[in-house]
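Quick check before the chapter quiz. The format below is the same one you will see on the exam, so make sure you can read both the input and the output lines.
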Amino acid sequence: MIKDTVKEADTRMKAAVQALEDFLSTVRTGRASSALIERLQVDYYGAPTPLVQLASISVPEARALLIRPYDESVLKSIEKAILASDVGLTPNNDGKVIRLNVPPLTEERRRDIVKMVNSRVEEARVSIRNVRRDLIKSLREFENEKLISEDELKRGEDELQKITDKMIEQVDAVGERKETEVMEV
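Here is the expected output.
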């Protein structure tokens, strides 16, 4: 019973770390990355479709992205989706491909991005702590129902705390990496 609870904690906490990593991959830094626009929803014949399914996205230079749609008829829709998004990039359409130039970030914008990254890191920490709280509550209920002993409860709580500490360290490391990447000129 405790092993199942610990396994569930590990799974749910890893999901929180993964969600943070997925979000941070879309955060703009000084250099071009296809992750900035891969998940952008494009209206494709009336259905919202991720850009990565409609076009190949390459990074020919450090500050440029090249979007080559599989179907040229979707160029205008891709252009509209980029303009409507909060990516902050202006597409250059030449009839066959779309080029996006990624301008260097200002110091003020870098600080704003770091604040946003830090708030997302804190949200991930809270999420991990909430998982720990829920599962400790479950363990205590097991103990009240006499399904586990008091010693097993203590051992389970200790294991949950160790996993929590490990996952929070991972979240902090992910946040620090992204912060360094953003502040890099």
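If your answer matched, good. The CA atoms of residues 2 and 155 lie 9 Å apart.
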